[in-house]
Amino acid sequence: MLPRIALARLVCRTGATFGTSAHSYCTSSTDPSFATIKPKKINYERIGIVGVPFDKGQRKKGVGLGPKAIRDAGLIDHIQEISPKLNIKDYGDIQYEALNFNGRKVGNMKKLEHVASCSRHLSHQVTEVLDDDRLCITLGGDHAIAIGSIDGHLHHSKDVAVIWVDAHADLNTNSTSPSGNIHGMPVALLARELCDYWPYIPGMDWQEPIISIKNLAYIGLRSVDPYERAIIEKFGINAFGMREVEKYGIREVMRMALERIDPEGQRSLHVSYDIDSLDVLEAPSTGTSVRGGLTLREGIYIMEEAYGTGRLAAVDLVEVNPAIGTPEDVRRTVEAAVHLLVAACGHSRKGDIADTLDLLQK
């Protein structure tokens, strides 16, 4: 089988640490090439928002309306309420043209010509936002957009840890996916340990799978395909499903997740958040809902703790689909998304810090 790209194969052979334990939790190893890198302090007073109205990673129409629905619900105003000092810039929506593969195809990867093009444009945009010294908020769109957002983060920060909050592992390859929908493949496309599981993919030469799977932690899993479970166990991926959330509580799960993917507290943090990680009662307007998920309180706590590290640099919020459900379902789902994003930008449920205490002076 041909490699995805020659460099990816080289990275796999020289940089990957292959785990064999089937245990659910695995402490991620620190790459020595990054041993002297000090964590960069994130400027939380500057925030950039990128919309990706993309729906080609799956088959249900409407998820491309997610960014507009979230913006229309007053996202920017709600973030601004945290502090008037916040500088918020909306970079608009990603625009792209589908690639022309001239007859070249990869089996079981639907709409690849769209995914490859949109992801590349998004990667450049995320890098630009981060280079502009802003916390990057990416609004999806389906979860295929994480290919571009995380790639863009890697181009900026090099050493990145990812918290993947999702009911699903999104770890299939084109050989294992039961549907061929690419929104179920982004983790497998990003991980350097899995690059040899892929054929050459036209249109994706720009994307190097350089993040270690050991620098990623799942939270909220409850619908995992058999192949995905095998890969999780083979590589010792940090996987905290709903069973672990029930057993340990969300506070301990977040502590363990951060400890395992960033034991030295030096990596730039990326949270890729699928709204279907929440229980369907909390977020019914999404395409692949699964009962028994996170409460909104637990979901907000994940964002609060990520922000509290001081290293949260990028957040994806994906799979809000305003075309699914009743108007009340849509309102509830979009409202949940706004609550999550505001928490990621620093809102505290204890109350935001006042900019002046003049009113309290006698």
From TrEMBL:
One Gene Ontology biological process: L-arginine catabolic process to proline via ornithine
MF (Gene Ontology): arginase activity; manganese ion binding
Presence of the UniProt keyword Metal-binding in the record: yes
Coiled coil: none
Matching InterPro entries: Arginase, Ureohydrolase, Ureohydrolase_dom_sf
CDD domains in the cross-refs: Arginase (cd09989)
Record note on cofactor: Binds 2 manganese ions per subunit.
Top-rank taxon, per record: Eukaryota
Keyword Disulfide bond: no
EC number: 3.5.3.1
Pathway(s) the chain acts in: Nitrogen metabolism; urea cycle; L-ornithine and urea from L-arginine: step 1/1
One of the record's GO cellular component terms: cytosol
Catalytic reaction list: L-arginine + H2O = urea + L-ornithine
Cofactor(s) required for function per UniProt: Mn(2+)
Annotated keywords: Arginine metabolism, Hydrolase, Manganese, Metal-binding, Urea cycle
Family statement: Belongs to the arginase family.
Official protein name in the record: Arginase
Organism: Anopheles culicifacies
Species lineage: Eukaryota, Metazoa, Ecdysozoa, Arthropoda, Hexapoda
